[in-house]
User: Fold these one by one.
Assistant:
Number 1:
Amino acid sequence: MIEETDISKEGLLTAYKNIVMERLFDKKMLNASRQGFLPFYIPLMGHEAIHIGLGMAIRDEDFFYPYYRDFGVLLQMGIPIDTILSQVFATATDNEIGRDMPDHFSLKKYNIGAVITPVAGHLTSATGIAYAKKYRKQNGSVITTFGDGATSTPDFHVAMNFAGVYNLPMVFFVENNQFAISVPTYPTKDKAFSNTYEETRGAIYKKADAYGFSGIRIDGTNFIEVYRATRKALESAENQPILIEAMSYRMGPHSTADDPNKYRTTTVIEGGDKDPLVVSQKLLKDMKILTDKDISSINDEMEETTSQLIDKYEKAPKPDKSTMMGNLYEEEPWYISEERSDIQ
Amino acid sequence: MTQMTMVKALNSGLNNAMERDDSIILLGEDVGTDGGVFRVTDGLLAKYGKERVMDTPLAELGIVGFGIGMSMAGLKAIPEIQFQDFIYTAMDQIINQMAKLRYRTNGDYTLPMVLRTPYGGGVHGGPYHSQSGEAYFTHTQGLTVVTPSNPYDAKGLLLSSIELNDPVIFLEPKRLYYAGRMEVPDDYYKIDLRKASVIKEGDALTIITYGPAVPLVKSTVEKNNVNAEIIDLRTLSPFDLDTIMASVKKTGKVLIVHESPKMFGVGAELSATISERAIDYLAAPILRVTGLDIPIPFALEDYYVPNEKRIMAAIEKLLKY
C-alpha cells in the first residue's frame, strides 16, 4: 500500500514486479489446473494493470470487497503470499480450510470482504458495509469490484440506488474485460458478434447518472492511471459515491471450463501493444525507470519465485475431513454432531 | 407487566434492544415514518432517528443485502420484509450470502442479524399476502428459523434472536398480530431458542405445531377435552429433538399441524425424524393436518388452512387406531 500522494520510483518498480508476478502465477496456475492440481481456476490475463493499480490505491482505512478475478490486488496490497496461495490451492492452512473455490478470499483482518461466486452477489453487502462506516463515522471508503456482466444484474442497480439514496462512501469499480463469458459488453467488430447480442446499449459508466452520482471511464491497461483515478475516487467517495469503468480485455478464457475460440477472435494478444504487461513496460521505460535489462532480470527473478511457490502449494496437504462439519452455527445443532459419523 | 398484543410485544422488544445497543439498525419498506404496515416499528423512528430506523427503497434484495453488509461490518441489522410473499427477490442473498457466510469463510465473518417478516394467512390476502414459506428457509443450511405463537414468546424469542451471533429468519404469524393480549414484561427477557415449549401436557397423543396454528390446536384440544400433549416448536430449525422424542415415547401417537402446505414441508422432516428414531414406540401412523397443496386462494382461505374439524378428524383417527 503506497501512502504518498503520488508514487516513488521504488513504488513503481514494486508495482511492475507484481504485474509480472501476477502474469507468471496466472500461467502456472492455469497449468496446475490442466495437470489436475487445481480442479478449477479463473484466469487473470488482461486484468493485471487494473489489479495492481487498485492495490496501490486502496488505503489502510478503506474496505475492499473483491470479486473472483482480483488475485493481483491482494498481491499489491501486501497480503502474505502464504495466505493467498493456501486459499487458491485449498490447503489445510487456508483460513477458509478449503471450503470455497480458488480466489474466493475472505480476509476480515485486512478489511477485505468474503468473495462470493454468484455474479454481483456482494454489491449490496458492500453497500451495507459503507453504511456501517458512515454510521460509525469512520474514515475511508468502501471499494467493490465486479465484471461488466455484473452490471446487468438487479444487485448492481439496487446497490447503486442505495448508495445514492444514503449518499454512501462507495466506489463501484467495473473491470470491463469486454465479455460476460461469451457475450460482448458492447457491440463489437468481432466476427462472432454478428450472431449474438450485446450486454447493454448504454455506456456502463453513464449509468451512475441515474442514481444521482458520477461515473468515469478509464484505461484499465495503464496501472498508473488506474491508481490515480481510484485513489482520487476513494477520497471523493467520502462525500459522494462514484462509479469507475476500467476498460481492459480478457485475454484468456472466462474460466478453465470455457473455450473462447468458440465465440471470439482474440484482438488483444500476449506481447502485443495492448497487453497490460507491455503497456506497463513501455510506461516505465518512457519514465526512465525500467530498462530492457531490468525487464529480463525481473522476469527471471519472478519466474524462480513463482515456480518455487507453486511447487510448494501444489504439494501442500489438504484439509482433514474432520474439519468439514464445523462452523455452520456458533452452537452446533444435534444433527450436525450426528452427521460427523457419516463422514467415511 | 403490560397487556400486549403480539405487535406491541415485538415493538417493546425492539425498543428494549435498541435502547441498550446502538449497533442495532432497523430497515425496510415503511418501517420509519409509517411505523411499518402492521405497526411493529411504530414510534421507533421518533425515538432513535432515521440513521437507526431506515425507510428503504422498494427492493427486498437490497434490504436484505444491505443488512448483511451492515452486520458484516459489526452492526446488527434487523431488516423487515413487509410480507414474506415478497422475500423471493432476496432469496439469493438469504441462501447464498446470509446462510453460508460463516461456513464458507470458516468463521472469518459471522452474521448476527434478524430478518423479520409476517407470514401465513388470516387477513384474506390471497396468493401474495398469505404465504407460509418456512420450508424454503428450514431447508437452507446455516439459518435459524424462529416463529412465535403468542405475545410473550414473540418478545422473548425476538430478543434471543437479536443476541444470537448467527442469522435468524423470524417469521411473525400475521393472524396472531392482533389476535389477543397477554401479560408481557416491559423489561428485557429472553427465551431459549433451542427449546420447544410443552404448552399442555397429556398422554393419549402428541401434537407438534408452531406459529399461526398453535392457538387453533390449543382451543380445539381444550374444547373437545382431548388428552393431548401439545408441543409448540418455537424454533423450526434447528428444532428441539429431545422434547419431541420424550413426548413421542410417552404417547406413542403423533399429529403434526401446520398452516403451510404438506408436501415436502416441516411436518415431513419431523415425521421422518420421529420414524427413524422411535418406530418401536409408535402405535399409529404419524398424521399431518396442514395447508392444502395449492396456492392460498383469496375467497376460500378458511377452507385452505387447518381448522377444528380437520384437526379433530385426525385426532379421532389416531385415538381409535
Number 2:
Amino acid sequence: MDSRHITAIIRFLWTPLILSFIVLTIVLIVWASGDSVVARTITDGLIRTVLVIGLYIFIGNSGVLAFGHIAFMLIGGYAVAWLTMSPFKKSFALDLPAILADNQFPLFPSAIAAGLLPAIVAFIVGIPIMRLSGIAASIATFAVLAIFYTIYSNWDSWTFGASTLVGIPLYVNMWVALGWTVFAIFTAYLYQQTKYGLALRSSREDEVAARAAGINIPVQRLIAFVLSAFFMGIAGVLQAHFLGSLIVNGFWLGITFLSLAMLIVGGQRSLTGAVVGVIVVSTIVELLRQVEAGIQFGNFEFSLPGGFQELGLAVLMIVILIYRPWGIMGGHEVPWPFGHGKRILAGGFALAPPLPKDERK
Amino acid sequence: MTASAPIVITENASSDKLEVFDVSVDFEGLRAIDDVTLSINNREVFGLIGPNGAGKTTLVNVLTGFQKPTTGRVLLGGRDVTGWTPHKLGRNGLSRTFQAVRLFRDLPVVENLEIAAIGTGLGRREASKRSIEILKWMDFEHKAFDQADTLPYGEERRVGIGRALAMAPRFVLLDEPAAGLSDAECDDLMSIISKIPSNFGCGVLLIEHNMRVIMGVCERIHVIDSGKTIAQGSPSEIQNNPDVIRAYLGSKTE
Amino acid sequence: MLQLIVQIAVDAISLGSLLALTALGIGLIFGIMRLINFAHGDFIMLGAYALIVPSAADAAMMFIGVWPAPILVISVIAILIVVALASERIAFRPLRTADPSILLITSFALSFFFQNLVLMVYSGRPKGVPLWPDLVKPIYLGPIRVPELHIITVCVTLALLVLLVLFLKKTTIGVQMRAASEDFRMAQLLGVRGNRVIAAAFAISGLLAAVVSLLFVSQTGTLSFKMGVPLVLFAFVATVVGGMGSLVGAVLGGFVVGVSSIVFQAILPMEMRMNDDAWVFALVLLILLVRPGGLVSVKALQERV
C-alpha cells in the first residue's frame, strides 16, 4: 500500500476520524483534570451523542422528520434492565417470567440484545409506516411512541408502571460511553457511504426522481430505521447503566424535543451536524446552568434567577436557526483541509483531478 | 477515452420492444389519453409530439409507472408490465428524465448518476465506474464533484440525461430535454441523443416541442392531440400530414 | 343506561369541540406557511394564566378572572392575539422560507420558552382557578342531566365555525387567506400581501386559543404550565388525521380524535382502559396507513410528476 493510497483512505474517513478525535480530546482533557462532576456531565453528553446519531441515521438520510424514536430508547433501556438486574432486586419491583426473573445476564451481550430488540420492533412497525412520507410519517412514528409510552406506563409487572425502577447495575463511565460514541460515529458514516445510504439520500432530495431511478424507497427507509433503532436502543442501555434507574416518564416529550433540537441546531443533513449539535446545545445548557448557580467577577457574585437557563436555551436556539436555517453545519461534513488532489469515490474507484480548462478536448 | 468513443453498456436483444396497447387515462371524468397504441423498437429514436396539454407527459407517466392507465396494457419486451411500480420498471430497463429535471440537488453530479446505477442493482464500485464512464462520454467529468444545484440550467438537463443512461436502460424516455436550451445547446443535445441508441444499445422515446430537434434526430414520429393519436410516420410524412399541420404545426410555425 | 349514553355522547362532543378549535388554530397556519405551531398549546396556557395575578404563591389570586364576563373574554382574546402576533413577528417571520422541520423546531423552542417563563413567574404547582363555577351546574332535558358548560362549549364551537367560514368566504382578507393556503407563491404574485395574510392567520389562531383557554379552564378548574401540551398534541394528531392543510379536515379530525378518546375510555374493559391513549394512537396509525393524506386530503400537498 503506497502513501497515496493511505492518504486516499484517510481522506475517505476524514469526517469520522475528526469527529472521533474531537470527542476523544474532550474526554482526555476531563480525565486529566480528574473532575468527577464534569466527567459525569461529559458521560451524559456522550450518551446524548449516541442518541442523536441514532436519530440522524434515519432523519438525516431520509429527510423524514421522525418523532417517535424515543420509543426505541425506552424499549432498549427496559430490556437491559430485565436482563442485567440482579434477581434479588428484580423481585422487589417486577414480576417477570422465570427465565428473566431468576437470571442475571452478562453486561455486554445484554447490551447487544437490548439494542437488537428495538431494531426488531422497528422492523415490524416500519414495514407499514415506511410507505408514508412527510408529515404523515412523522405522526405515524409519533403514534408508535405514544403507544409504547402508554403501554410501558401501565405495564406494572414488567416496568414497575409509572414509578422509578431502581437497582440497575452501574457500569457506564466516560470510557464506555466514548467507545459506543466512536462506534456510532463510524457506523453512521460508513452506512451513509454504502449504496443503501446513498439510495436513501436520493429519496430525501427528490422522491419522484428516486423512484424513477429504480430506488425502492420504503425498503431503503426501513434499513435506516432499523439501524437507527439499534443505536437509540443502545442509548437507552447506556443511560440505564449510567443512572442506575429508569422511569417511563423520562422517555416522552422532553427528551424527544431536546434530541431533535440538538440534531436540527447542528444541522440534520450531516453526521458532523449531529455531533456538533450535541456539543453546542450541551455547552449552552451547561454554561447557562453555571451562570444561574452564580459566577464570580472579582468580589462580585453574579447570578441569574432560576429558570433563566431554559429561557436562554430557547432564545439561543431560535437565534441560531434564524441565522443558520440548515443548522450550524448547514449539511456539510468536516472539510478536507489539504487541497484538491486525487478524489476517491466511495466505491474505491479513483478519478484524476480535473484538467485545467485549456487542456481539455 | 474521448467523447466520441462508443460505450455500449447493455447488449439488448435487437427484437426488444416497448409497446402500448389501447391505453386510456381518465382524470376525474376528463379523458387525458384516449385509446393510444404505439410501439418503440430497440435502437431507434422515436418522437412523440403534440400541442400543450395533448397528454404526452401523462403517456410517459403511464409507461414509467407513475400513472395507472384506466384501460389498456403496456408491454416491455413482450412482457405485460401494466401497473408495475416506477422502481420496478426502472430495474427492468425503463428510465426517464423529467421536464422539471429533478436532480438530487444536494448531491454531487457523479452521485446523481451513481444512484441511478445503484437503482439497477449495482454495488457502489461498479456504479462509480459506470457513472464516470458516462460523464466522460458526455464530456462532463470535469464537473463530477460539483453539487448538482450549482449547475447552470443547460448542464442540469445534461446531468438528467446522464442519470437516465446510468441505469443502462433498454428504453430511455426523454421528457422535453430541449426546453429552455439555446440553439448551440440544442445542437449538443441532438448529437448526444442521436448517439444514444448505438452507444447504449437502447431505444429512445423523445418528447419535444422543438421541431428542429424532433425532425433532426427521430426516425419515426407519433403525434397526439387531446389524448388521441392523429398521425404516425417518418419526419417527412409528418411534416406533410394535413391533420398534423392543422393541429400542431399550423399553430406553431409562423 | 340512556343517561350514560347521553353522558358519553356529550363528553365526546365537548372534547371533540375543544380539539376541533385547537386543530383549526394549528391547521390555519399550517395551510399558509407549512408551520406546525406547537406553541399553540402554550397560547392556550398563557390565556389561562392571564386570569390570575402573577405570583409564585400556591393559592391563585384572580386578576382578569373576576372581571365581568364580556370584558374578561375580550381581554383574554386581546392578550392572546398580541402573543400570537408577537410570536410570528419575532420567531417565525425570519424563518418563513425555511424547511418545515426548522419551523417546527422553532415552535418547540417557543413552546419551551413560554412554559419556562410561566414556571419562573407562577411556579410549577397546579393552581385551582374557579372560573364561572355556576356553569358546571347541570341542566335537565327531561330526565337527562347535561352540564351546562358542555352545551355552551358545543354552541360556542358551532358559532365560531360559522363565523370563520363567513370570514373566509366573504371578506377580502379571508379570500386571500384561502388563496395563500392553495399556493402561497402564486397568491403573492397575484398581489396578496404575505405578511398581512400570515399575521391575520396568527391573529385568528390567537382568538381560537383564547376561546379554548376559557372553555378548558372552566371545565377543569385548574392551571398548570404544561396544560397546553396534551391539547396541542391531540389537536396536532387531529389535523393530520383530518388531512393536513384542510380546515374541514382539521375540524373533522378534532372530532374523530376527541370522540374516539372518550369512547375508548368508556367501552374498553377495565384492565385495558388504562391504555386508552394507546388505542387512540393505534386508531390514528390505522387511519394514516389506509389514507396517508388524511380523511380530507388536499391537492396542493400532493406531488405532481
